Fold this sequence. Notes:
By secondary structure, this protein is mainly β. It is built from no helices and 11 strands. It has strands at residues 3-7, 11-13, 18-25, 33-39, 46-51, 57-59, 67-72, 77-82, 91-99, 105-108, 112-117. Strands 2, 4, 5, 6, 9, 10 and 11 form a 7-stranded mixed sheet that branches.
Amino acid sequence: QVQLVESGGDLVQAGGSLRLSCATSGFAFSRAAMGWYRQAPGKQREMVATISTGITTNYADSVKGRFGISRDNAKNTVYLQMNSLKSEDTAVYYCNANRAGIITYNYWGQGTQVTVSS
C-alpha cells in the first residue's frame, strides 16, 4: 500500500521557519521524483519545489532563496526547509511522488497545514 505522510505543518509568525517532512512507503522511493506543492484557499495547487532522483532541484520563483528541498533515500523521506516565511506562504502543503516511463505513477499525500501570521 502506497503511503505519503506529511508532517511539520504549524502556525508560525512571519519571518519564522518550519521543516516539513514526508515519510513514504509502498513504492521505490529512490526511483521517484519528489515534490512539494501547496494550495491556498481559493487558489489552484502550485508547485513549490521538486527534487529528481539525481537530486536536481527546482523551485517556484516565489520561494527561491528561502526554501530548500532535500531527500533521504535511506529513510524514504523528503523534506522541505522553509525559512523567512511570509503570510503568502499560508497553504496546505502536499507531498508528491512522480515517476514516468515503463513504470508510471503519480502519488499524493493528504497535506499538512502551514499558517503564517503577519
